[in-house]
């Protein structure tokens, strides 16, 4: 048994404090491991889960789980509202079968990804996608076709009622069902004033200059290095279908200054293509909903030229 509660959650109720749980577990012939320091809940746990400290601690659990059944315990009854789901998702991607237990919860198995990091290219690779102009089915199919492993939500207000299936909690649950990791970070979102001014005056040039200055001030280099894990297909999510007037394109351009050789691939309702071909592809498009017929067929060569939708 691995206890991943935070320190404050371990204190109450008194009958469930670590020494007492350890005694009960020992009587049952099992071992108790207090992982509060290593894997206990903390602010921005989803970003902590991208660090080597997290992976080393989770791998220790995975090593034991490879030949024994293990149990993660935390305070929340519903795993979907608990940070242990992030730990479980990580272990699932390592090939472990995960069962979530809890009162009034279906005892279902979490999907296990068939792919491993060894099957992914190690070249720098970044995808972008917007949720608009797509049904939920279209959105999921695009992610699956592109073999996306992680979605990074860079919206300022991901809980808007106008987001439909892409509201933060709904999207997080949807992605979990298809074995895709979800991370939200406000550090790559515009400020409220910047976004509200753009919506008021529709001056994209002003907005773009403001956001580029914001990135220079924030310097999210370390964060982007964490998010763009080598060997993973990571998609940065925002609202607009096309990246031309979406700040995710600006985030991608900033990331290119960190990884000059990185390939940026835009996933849209009208096609899938690399950033350099964005203008040519869109300007020559006659039907915005017929081009997404060849996305990415091989994850070893995620975007060979002959498989890109060419319209010019």
Task: Summarize the entry for a quick read.
This protein is α/β, with parallel strands linked by helices and 312 residues long.
Verbal overview:
It is built from 13 helices and 11 strands. By secondary structure, the chain is an alpha/beta fold. The strands form 3 sheets. The chain has a 6-stranded mixed beta sheet, with helices on both faces. A 3-stranded parallel beta sheet has the order 2-1-3, with no helix packed on it. Strands 4-5 form a two-stranded antiparallel ribbon. A hairpin with a 2-residue loop joins strand 10 and strand 11. The longest helix has 15 residues. The radius of gyration is 21 Å and the shape is elongated. It starts with a strand and ends in a 29-residue tail after the last helix. The C terminus is likely disordered.
Approximate helicity band: 25-40%
- Note poorly predicted spans: 104-121, 282-312
Query: Could you tell me the mean pLDDT?
Result: 81
Strand percentage? 5-15%
> Can you write the helix and strand succession as a string?
EHHEHHHEHEEEHEHEHHHEHEEH
Largest sheet: 6 strands, mixed
Strand order of the largest sheet: 8-7-9-6-10-11
The number of E-state strands comes to 11
List keywords for this structure.
alpha/beta, 6-stranded mixed β-sheet, 12% strand, disordered C terminus, 3-stranded parallel β-sheet, 312 residues, 2 domains
Topology:
Elements: E1 2-3, H1 7-11, H2 18-27, E2 33-34, H3 36-39, H4 45-48, H5 52-65, E3 72-73, H6 84-93, E4 98-99, E5 109-110, E6 125-130, H7 136-145, E7 150-153, H8 168-177, E8 181-184, H9 192-201, H10 204-218, H11 221-227, E9 234-238, H12 247-258, E10 263-268, E11 271-274, H13 278-283
Parallel strand pairs: 1-2, 1-3, 6-9, 6-10, 7-8, 7-9
Antiparallel strand pairs: 4-5, 10-11
Helix pairs in contact: 9-10, 10-12
């Amino acid at each position: 048994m691995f206890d991943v509660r935070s320190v404050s959650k371990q204190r109450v109720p008194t009958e469930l404090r670590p020494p007492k749980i350890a005694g009960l577990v020992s009587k049952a012939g099992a071992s108790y491991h207090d992982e509060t320091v290593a894997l206990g809940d903390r602010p921005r746990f989803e970003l902590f889960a991208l660090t080597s400290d997290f992976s080393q601690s989770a791998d220790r659990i995975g090593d034991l789980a490879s030949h024994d059944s293990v149990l993660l315990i935390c305070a929340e009854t519903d795993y979907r509202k608990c940070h242990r789901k992030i730990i479980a998702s990580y272990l699932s991607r390592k090939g472990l079968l995960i069962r979530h237990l809890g009162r009034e919860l279906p005892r279902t198995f979490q999907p296990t990804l068939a792919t491993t990091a060894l099957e992914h290219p190690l070249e720098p690779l970044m995808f972008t996608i917007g949720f608009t102009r797509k049904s939920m089915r279209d959105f999921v199919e695009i992610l699956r076709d592109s073999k996306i492993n992680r979605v990074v939500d860079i919206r300022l207000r991901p809980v808007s009622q106008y987001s439909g299936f892409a509201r933060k909690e709904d999207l997080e649950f949807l992605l979990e069902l298809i074995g895709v990791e979800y991370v939200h970070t406000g550090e790559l979102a515009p400020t409220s004033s910047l976004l509200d001014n753009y919506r008021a005056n529709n001056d994209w040039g002003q907005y773009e200059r403001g956001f580029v200055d914001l990135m220079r001030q924030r310097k999210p280099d370390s964060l982007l290095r964490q998010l763009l894990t080598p060997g993973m297909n990571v998609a940065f999510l925002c609202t607009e279908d096309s990246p031309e007037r979406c700040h995710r394109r600006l985030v991608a351009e900033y990331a290119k200054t960190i990884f000059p050789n990185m390939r940026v691939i835009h996933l849209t309702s009208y096609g899938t293509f690399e950033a350099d071909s964005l203008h040519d592809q869109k300007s020559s498009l006659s039907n915005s909903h017929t081009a997404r017929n060849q996305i990415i067929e091989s994850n070893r060569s995620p975007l060979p030229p002959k498989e890109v939708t060419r319209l010019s």
